[in-house]
Design a protein that fits this description.
- The protein is of the alpha+beta class.
- It has 21 helices and 26 strands.
- The strands form 5 sheets. Strands 8-7-6-11-10-9 form a 6-stranded antiparallel sheet. A 5-stranded antiparallel sheet has the order 2-1-5-4-3.
- Helix 11 runs parallel beside helix 16.
- The N terminus is likely disordered.
- It comes from Streptomyces dangxiongensis.
- One of its GO terms (molecular function) is phosphatase activity.
- This is GAF domain-containing protein.
Length: about 750
């Protein structure tokens, strides 16, 4: 050995000794600090010194020794690249800093995941030569877990904010905790609305048989950890299930599931309501640390937020569903009312009732009414024609003890059953499973019944019964209105028929035609009238007029005018005198009968060699129109005031001759004043144009048909607001051989 080499070795030994002394001082300085310190020597990284925190972090026990290479003491570091990092620092002398580095410490079942902030720096002798590596670090596992916990909780809160399904949120929460604490099995139970039972919410790692067994457990003292925690509204810690009396009834079940400890935290709403329980199970007996209890509180609060949000959403949806159901019911009833009100025939109304009820309320529906003391089935509805025929063919029994229809007609009370109706019927063939029988009532007395038949598993509920009763009530009202309408229409028709000529008479040398169209639905007697009658001397009287008003008073006034004119016409040759007599009769009415005025055109006509001679009077009425043989239309001018107003009218007669082929049109203002859907009136001009458009050499019937069709085309199917009447007199050709 040369002197130079001896000097260098001596220097290295002295230097390494000095460094060793420094590292020992550092080890003492760190002492029991939570900071980790280790000092390694040579290229083999022999552990020379370390503080207790280092040994605790790497597993303690058999690893608490020095004088061995680190790779031998902790072989798992080799595969994770940490020995290679030590080699690099040792060779280069450059420091290496790691932040939040993941390390798996130990092997097999004893392995654990940990995170560290650490620094590898070279150890140098006094001459600056690298003689080893020093490690200083801090374990950040808890910080890492806390950050991860915060991140996972934020993710759960985001799920809750997005209204993710509650099972997904709870399952994700359980899995998050189990990933953070691998030795923990998490369960969430949800409280019933009454808080007396707990239902399975989420427990991804517990056995299915265990979850099924505790699903629905009661809340109460001694019902395991969860039932007791729910009952007490406070944490229940069971560190060893095998010896705790709270688990007497569930100990065998826990043993089968391999559970040894259970810590349960009640999940409470902000108002103190019980929402459920949050439980952390362990497979070995264990008492919780403060961090465990804090973790339970955090996630119990998170679960409470999720459950409350879910319940609020469920309540909102339920409210929306109820509101929608109410809107649907209202829409159904409004549509039904509109449909039923549009049927002005009682039988059609009841048939419509059956089609409205099926399938909206039930698959099968039937309507029965009492007629002449017997029950008659008047309407049925079903999904198929065969089913409808089967329901239609069934005749309800007359004995109230045997048939629900007879019972309901007798009692006037709805009958509901979850079985087939009593008495014979096609119930089995139709698959009937229940029925509702609702009375149709008019003035407190049932006159019919609506029967609904179910064929499925779903029974009739209170909502369906109430809807059926409301539909029946509206249908009964519509049927009553239809019946009254029919009666009133028949009465009005009969009275109107008595006021109008059934047929126009045959007048020598003349053609006569007329039409009458009542306003509205024909429920009231109109005030328009016309008449043609013989005067007894070979001449004829004709009249067309309009009585102010409608109804019974208008009918009596019309009769008064017609009969007065007929009575006095043979007595007066001048039509002015006849009209004055009519005016006197109107003014002589009782004050309670005098409800308005009358307008009319009255005249006499007689056949003549050159046509028809006429003398006519106009009393406040529309001007007659004359159609000549060249299809020119002119008005027949004559003045005269209203009748029946107490003021003697000034009347003048207009005399004219209708030549063969010429026509006189008398009409009421209901024709000229009718309107379209807008504001335009038919008017005098259009009437004149329609009259001129009649065929060449038209008959009286041709003219009536032409005018009536033009008016109908103008109103386009709409209801007219006033009666319409017209009378056409056409002069015929003179008889052959007549001078």
């Amino acid at each position: 050995m040369t002197a130079e080499r001896e000097r260098r070795l001596t220097s290295e030994v002295r230097g390494s000794g000095a460094v060793r002394d420094t590292d020992e001082d550092l080890s003492l300085l760190f002492g029991t600090s939570t900071a980790l310190f280790a000092s390694m020597a040579g290229p083999a990284h022999v552990l020379e010194a370390a503080n207790p925190a280092f040994f605790a972090a790497i597993g303690g026990g058999g690893r608490e020794r020095t004088g061995v290479p680190l790779g031998e003491l902790m072989p798992e570091l080799t595969t994770q690249g940490f020995i290679r990092l030590l080699d690099q620092v040792y060779r280069s002398g450059e420091r290496h800093v790691g932040r939040d580095v993941r390390v798996v410490l130990g092997v097999g079942e004893d392995a654990r995941e940990a995170y560290f902030d650490f620094t590898y720096e070279a150890r140098r002798d006094t001459g600056g030569n690298v003689i080893g590596v020093r490690m200083i670090g801090v374990e950040t596992t808890q910080v890492k877990h806390a950050r991860r916990l915060a991140a996972e909780q934020r993710a759960l809160l985001e799920q809750i904010a997005r209204q993710a399904p509650l099972p997904d949120v709870l399952d994700g929460m359980c899995r998050t905790i189990e990933e953070l604490c691998p030795e923990v099995l998490v369960s969430v139970l949800l409280a019933d609305a009454d808080g007396r039972h707990l239902r399975h919410g989420a427990a991804p790692s517990l056995p299915d048989f265990y979850n099924q067994a505790i699903d629905g457990i009661a809340t109460g003292e001694g019902v395991g950890s969860c039932g007791t925690a729910a009952h007490r509204r406070q944490n229940v810690i069971v560190s060893d299930i095998t010896g705790d009396p709270l688990w007497d009834d569930f100990r065998d079940l826990a043993g089968q599931a391999g559970l040894a400890a259970c810590w349960s935290t009640p999940i409470l709403a902000r108002d103190g309501r019980l929402l459920g329980t949050f439980a952390m199970y362990h497979r070995t007996p264990r008492a919780p640390q403060d961090t465990d209890l804090a973790l339970a509180r955090v996630f119990a609060d998170t679960a409470a937020l999720a459950i409350e949000r879910h319940q609020a959403e469920q309540a909102r949806r339920a409210a929306d569903a109820r509101e929608k159901a109410a809107r649907d019911d209202l829409a159904f009833l409004l549509a039904a009312s509109t449909s039923l009100a549009g049927r002005l025939d009682e039988t059609q109304t009841l048939k419509r009732l059956a089609t409205l009820a099926s399938p909206a309320l039930a698959p099968l529906a039937a309507v029965d009414v009492m007629e002449a003391g017997r029950v008659q089935r008047v309407a049925t509805a079903a999904p198929t024609e065969d089913a409808r025929e089967a329901v239609a063919a069934h005749t309800p029994a007359h004995d109230a003890e045997d048939d629900p229809v007879a019972r309901v007609l007798a009692s006037g009370v709805t009958e509901v059953a979850r079985r087939t109706p009593t008495g014979p019927g096609p119930w089995r063939d139709l698959g009937v499973t229940g029925y509702i029988c609702v009375p149709l009532v008019d003035r407190g007395r049932p006159f019919g019944a609506l029967t609904l038949l179910s064929t499925g598993e779903t029974p009739f509920d209170g909502h369906r019964v109430a809807l059926a009763e409301e539909l029946a009530r509206r249908a009964a009202s519509a049927a009553r209105n239809a019946r009254q309408y029919t009666q009133r229409a028949a009465l009005a028709r009969d009275l109107q028929t008595g006021l109008l000529l059934p047929d126009l008479p045959d007048v020598p040398g003349a053609q006569l035609a007329a039409f009458y169209h009542p306003a509205g639905e024909g429920l009231e007697i109109g005030g328009d009238f016309y008449d043609v009658f013989a005067r007894g001397d070979g001449s004829w009287g004709f009249i067309l007029g309009d009585v102010c008003g409608r109804g019974a008073v208008a009918a009596t006034t019309t009769a008064l005018v017609r009969h007065t004119a007929r009575a006095v016409a043979p007595l007066f040759d001048d039509p002015v005198d006849v009209v004055k007599a009519v005016d006197k009769a109107l003014n002589d009415r009782h004050v309670h009968q005098n409800n308005g005025f009358v307008t009319l055109v009255y005249g006499h006509l007689a056949p003549a060699p050159d046509g028809l001679t006429m003398s006519l009077v106009r009393a406040g009425h529309t001007l007659p129109l004359l159609l000549d043989t060249d299809h020119r239309v002119d008005t027949v001018e004559t003045s005269g005031g209203l009748l029946g107003i107490g003021i003697p009218p000034r009347l003048t007669a207009r005399r004219l001759t209708l030549r063969p082929g010429e026509s006189l049109l008398l009409y009421t203002d209901g024709i000229t004043e009718c309107r379209t859907t807008g504001t335009e009136q038919y008017g005098d001009t259009r009437l004149a144009e329609a009259l001129a458009s009649a065929p060449r050499r038209p008959t009286a019937t041709d003219i009536v048909r032409t005018v009536a069709e033009d008016v109908r085309g103008f109103v386009d199917g709409g209801n007219v607001e006033d009666d319409q009447a017209a009378l056409v007199i056409t002069a015929g050709e003179p008889a052959p051989g007549r001078d």
